[in-house]
């Protein structure tokens, strides 16, 4: 047995031939043994032992193929760079704040304070950025259906890659969806949007349009939600208004049926009773005064009139005249005799004054008696009216309990209706406000270089590396295959 490594001579055959031969350097071949007897069992097959020296030998023998495949890889990389359609990627960075702008103290949408909820809100809005509504709006506004890049292309056999849609805009949307990408930066609310097309200006224009369409879609979504809330509130208002009207009509009917009239927050019957009670008290005072006056003018024991208690102006004048005339009569009596004309005249005048005093006394007593009877009648009438008023107030009090219940029900319904009416007005005004908190921190600009394919040197290097790796794998595989055949022989 001989080996190429032991002989030290250059190989006289090509690499593939030598790799296919069985005289490659390998583990030492054992001397041939005598043929086993027919009864002996066949020896088990063992895989070849691969060593670093043996692998280097396989690589050296396949060096030509390695070089050829590496050269083919370099050429393929250069050719792909020259023939492939370039792609230009424009980027735009946004901050999507999960907490919308609070322009109202009691907004329709609740603010999220939990961090997990905020992340979910940002992720949801990120999905809106690449949603069909946004893409369709961009495709329509930029008329991408008329752009050849966004039209279905024919396949290798003349047929389209997919069945074309009936709407060219849908075809453009499907192609645009494959050319965009959006992701959120870790531990932040910053979202990056990437758009790749065959032209730098086109990529930047589409990225800008996507951002604007995204903001409009968020605003429209909020407006739709607010509009639904406003419609629901408005529909509820009609029912609430009917309930308030029915409750207020029930209060008015109850008042009219039970004659419950109020003045300054108090029932008229209650006010009437209060007035009657005051009048009864005044009548009682007047009766006491009349009785006292009458007792002064009459003697309770004998029933005679007491002229001294009469203090009218006429009585005072008569008493004055009587006193003067009495003095004159006494003087005449001491001067003249009983039959003297002057004395008789004075006595007649004195008797006339006494009679006038008696008449005035009778008139005073009669007036006091009439006043007493009138006071008694007035008190009795007022007490009767007061009793009637008390009965009315008692019945009105029972009815007032039911009235207050009806009023509370009407007030509660009215408050709910007013709250809904106010809220409906606020929501209707909120519908016109855009509270989305999306801010562009890096607007899309036309890229200065293409993003794909890479530069020619990079493509050539990658192609050469791939070809060389393929050649190395081929050389090692053929060498291992030759060694396996040799061991089986």
Provide structural commentary.
The N terminus is likely disordered. The chain has 12 helices and 6 strands. The strands form 2 sheets. It has a 4-stranded antiparallel sheet. Strands 4-5 form a two-stranded antiparallel sheet. α3 crosses α12. The chain is rod-shaped and about 200 Å long. It is 64% helix and 6% strand.
Number of helices: 12
Level of helix content? 55-70%
Q: Give a quick account of the main beta sheet: strands, pairing sense, barrel closure.
A: 4 strands, antiparallel
Judged by helices, strands and strand pairing, the structural class is: alpha+beta
Distance N terminus to C terminus? Answer: 15 Å
Order of helices and strands: HHHHEHHHEEHEEHHHEH
* Poorly predicted runs: 1-41, 156-161
User: Strand portion, in percent?
Assistant: 5-15%
Number of strands: 6
* Strand order, largest beta sheet: 2-3-1-6
Radius of gyration, in Å, reads: 63 Å
The average pLDDT value, as a whole number, equals 77
Shape, principal axes of CA atoms: rod-shaped
């Amino acid at each position: 047995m001989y080996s190429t490594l032991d002989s030290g001579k250059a190989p006289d055959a090509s690499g593939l031939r030598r790799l296919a031969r069985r005289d490659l350097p390998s583990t030492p071949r054992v001397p041939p043994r005598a043929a086993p007897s027919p009864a002996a069992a066949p020896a088990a097959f063992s895989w070849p032992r691969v060593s670093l020296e043996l692998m280097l030998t396989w690589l050296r023998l396949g060096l030509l193929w390695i070089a050829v495949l590496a050269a083919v890889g370099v050429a393929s990389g250069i050719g792909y760079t020259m023939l492939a359609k370039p792609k230009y990627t424009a980027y735009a960075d946004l901050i999507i704040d999960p907490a919308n702008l609070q322009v109202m103290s009691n907004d329709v949408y609740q603010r999220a304070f939990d961090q997990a909820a905020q992340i979910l809100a940002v992720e949801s809005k990120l999905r809106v950025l690449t949603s069909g509504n946004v893409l369709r709006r961009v495709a329509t506004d930029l008329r991408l259906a008329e752009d050849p890049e966004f039209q279905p292309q024919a396949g290798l056999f003349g047929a389209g890659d997919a069945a074309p849609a009936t709407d060219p805009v849908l075809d453009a949307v499907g192609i645009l969806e494959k050319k965009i990408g959006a992701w959120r930066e870790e531990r932040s609310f910053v979202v990056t949007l990437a758009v790749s097309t065959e032209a730098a200006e086109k990529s930047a224009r589409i990225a800008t349009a996507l951002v604007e369409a995204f903001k409009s879609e968020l605003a429209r979504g909020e407006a739709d939600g607010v509009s639904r809330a406003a419609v629901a509130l408005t529909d509820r208002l009609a029912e609430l208004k009917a309930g308030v009207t029915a409750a207020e009509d029930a209060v008015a009917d109850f008042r009219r049926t039970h004659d419950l009239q109020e003045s300054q927050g108090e029932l008229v019957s209650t006010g009437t009773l209060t007035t009657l009670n005051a009048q009864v008290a005044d009548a009682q005072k007047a009766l006491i005064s009349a009785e006292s006056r009458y007792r002064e003018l009459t003697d309770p024991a004998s029933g005679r009139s007491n002229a001294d208690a009469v203090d009218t102006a006429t009585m005072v004048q008569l008493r004055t005249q009587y006193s003067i005339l009495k003095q004159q009569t006494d003087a005449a009596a001491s001067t003249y005799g009983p039959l003297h004309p002057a004395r008789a005249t004075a006595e007649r005048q004195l008797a006339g004054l006494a009679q006038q005093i008696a008449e005035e006394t009778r008139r005073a007593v009669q007036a006091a008696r009439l006043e007493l009877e009138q006071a008694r009648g007035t008190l009795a009438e007022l007490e009767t009216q007061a009793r009637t008023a008390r009965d009315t107030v008692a019945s009105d009090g029972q009815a007032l309990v039911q009235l207050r219940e009806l009023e509370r029900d009407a007030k509660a319904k009215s408050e709910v209706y007013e709250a809904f009416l106010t809220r409906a007005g606020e929501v209707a005004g909120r519908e016109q406000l855009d509270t989305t908190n999306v801010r562009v921190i890096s607007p899309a600009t036309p890229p200065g270089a293409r993003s794909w394919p890479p530069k020619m040197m990079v493509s050539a290097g990658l192609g050469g590396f791939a070809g060389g790796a393929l050649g190395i794998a081929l050389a090692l595989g053929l060498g291992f295959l030759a060694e396996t055949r040799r061991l089986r022989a």
